[in-house]
C-alpha cells in the first residue's frame, strides 16, 4: 500500500518537473550539456507534437503499488513507459535499451539503479532518468540511486544476478532479432563470451571462431542445444559460471526444454563445427584480464558544494584532498564527491536541501563527468543523508 507521505510526494512531482525547465532556462554556459539535457527532459515530461514519447499524466503514476514490496523489480524503458521484466528474464539486458532496477531490502533499505546500454539513445536515457525521478519520489526519496553503464556495473548491481548478466544486441526500436521465451528454437544461433572471476559477464559476440580465445569460456546457443565451451586456459570460476548461465538460458528461455553440454577445448561436437566451420588455431587468452582488482578508497578526491541560490546551478570546491571534515556536509545542501579518477562520482543529498537540487542530482553528476572528461562509463552513486555507504564514509575523518 502506498502511504500518505508517498502520495504527497507524488503530488509535488509537477513542481520537480517545473524545476527541470527552470534549470534549463537559467543555465550558464558552464553547463551547456546540462542545459540541453534538462530541456530534453522537460520536453519528454510535457510532450510535444514532435515527441516520440507519451507524457506522464500529472494525476497518474506509471508504477504499481507493488514497488513497495521487498525483493528485486526490473523494468525496461519503452517510450517513456516502464515495462516489467519477467522474473525468469531478469539478468538479460539489451544493449540498445535502458532499464530501471529496484531492490527493496530489509528495514526499508532500497537501491534504485539506472542501467544504460552501450547503444541506448540519449532520448531513451533521458526517459529513464525521468522515470527514476518519479519512482524515487514515489518511494519517499528513500533509495540510494546508482547510474550503471553496460560493462562497468557495480558489485552491488552484480550481486542481484548470481548467475551473471547476459548482454544481447538490439533494443525496443531496433531491427535486431530478439530472442524471447517461446521463440522457435531452431531459429536461434547466438554466441556469448563468459569472462571474469568475481563479477561474471556474458557478452554476445559474432558467430565465428574468430570470437574465441583459449583463456575464456563461451556459450553457443543453438536453441535445442546449448554448448558451454571452456578454453584450455580458462579459470574454474569461469567454467562454473558458464555452466550456470547455460542452465539459466535453458530454464528461462527454453522452459527447460533444451540440452546443455559442457565442451572441452579440442573436443567440439559435430554440431558446433557445422555452425562455426572448421576450427582454426585460436587466439591465446590473457589471464591478467580476468583479475579484478579491489576498489580502493583513493586519497585523490575532491568535494564540491552544489547550490542554486542565485537561480542557477553552481559547483563550489570546498576541499581538494581527503579525508574531509564531516562538518563540511551541510543538511541544507547537496555535494559532489569527486573520485572520478577511480571510476566513481558520489552525490550526497542533505535532507533539508531544496527539491530542485535533490531532483537534479543525477544530471549534475553526468554533467560533472563530461566537464572533467572522465570515462562515459563512470559510476554514479546518489546518497540521501543517513544512507551513506561505508566506502563513502572512508573519505571523511571521524565519521560517527
From TrEMBL:
Chief place of localization: other
GO biological process: actin filament capping
Keyword presence, Repeat: yes
Organismal lineage: Eukaryota, Metazoa, Chordata, Craniata, Vertebrata
InterPro entries per the UniProt record, alphabetical: ADF-H/Gelsolin-like_dom_sf, Gelsolin-like_dom, Villin/Gelsolin
Claim: Repeat is one of the keywords in the record: yes
Keywords, in A-Z order: Acetylation, Actin capping, Actin-binding, Cell projection, Cytoplasm, Nucleus, Phosphoprotein, Repeat
GO annotations of cellular component type: lamellipodium; melanosome; nucleus; ruffle
Subunit structure: Interacts with NUP62. Interacts with NUTF2 and RAN; involved in CAPG nuclear import.
GO molecular function annotations of the record: actin filament binding
Species this protein is from: Equus caballus (Horse)
Sequence similarity: Belongs to the villin/gelsolin family.
Cross-referenced Pfam families: Gelsolin
Name of the protein in its database record: Macrophage-capping protein
Gelsolin-like domain residues: 81-158, 199-273, 319-392
